[in-house]
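Q: I'm building a small set of examples for a reading group on sequence design. Run inverse folding on the following structure and report the sequence directly after it, with nothing in between.
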């Protein structure tokens, strides 16, 4: 493919200045940017939050984002990820919380029976105050 100059003798690939500035909030002629589906950004936030220790908030935001998206027929995968990850982290948090409560209840029960001081029970040192 050979390079042909245009009829006026000028190179068709030469540098041209950028087009005039488009006012803020307007799109250039011939360009169309479709609106973002509702709940998409909220779904992304919901998908990230459970991985930074905010599972319950991620779960709630994921449900809200999925609800917004469902109204317009958009399949919001990040919102679904947020719902699942949020639910899993909430369940894990509840299990850990219950386990800690059971252990602490056992220690406090032992201290109630033994009284204040340092005690050695089955090779374990328990300090009660």
């Amino acid at each position: 493919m050979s390079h042909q100059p245009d009829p006026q003798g000028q190179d068709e690939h030469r540098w041209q200045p950028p087009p005039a500035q488009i006012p803020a909030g307007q799109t250039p002629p011939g360009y169309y940017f479709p609106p973002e589906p509702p709940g998409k950004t909220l779904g992304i936030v919901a998908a990230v939050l459970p991985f930074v220790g905010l599972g319950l908030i991620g779960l709630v935001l994921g449900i809200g984002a999925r609800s917004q998206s469902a109204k317009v027929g958009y399949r919001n995968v990040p919102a679904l990820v947020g719902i699942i990850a949020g639910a899993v982290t909430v369940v894990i948090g509840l299990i850990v919380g219950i386990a800690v409560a059971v252990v602490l209840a056992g220690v406090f029960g032992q201290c109630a029976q033994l009284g204040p001081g340092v005690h050695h029970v089955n090779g374990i040192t328990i300090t009660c105050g």
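The chain has a mean pLDDT of 85.
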